[in-house]
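Run NUDIX hydrolase through structure prediction, thanks.
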Amino acid sequence: MTAPQKPVRAAGCVLWRRAASEDGLEIGLVHRPKYDDWSHPKGKLKRGENPLAGAVREVAEETGMDCRLGSPLPTAVYLAGGRPKQVRYWAAEAVAGAFTPNPEVDLLVWLPPAEARTRLTHERDRPLVDALLASLHLA
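Sure, done. The structure for NUDIX hydrolase is below.
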């Protein structure tokens, strides 16, 4: 019998900014050409890295945005490449920065919550939009 695999540890954010839309905010989603998918900015933690620090680093690397962290959001647990993966998420307000396409992320879009929920490729990412709205008392 083989021992269960340790989960891949990752962290990310549901990135948002204030907007003049009816919801008063937009959510930033990234497109990853390697997977041809739309998701929240996230990535694997470096050895010994604190999940909070990793979430902020990933947002900066993938979107070019500096962010102000807010409430913790639900942790996603799923299989990736046959291995368990655990992604800790936080709400994060984009406060400054500019997006530059890179090999990992070629597009960043800002969408109202309902459109963001529809654009997300993976079903597991959609409840995070609702969790963000609840954490901001907008749900």
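The chain has three helices and seven strands.
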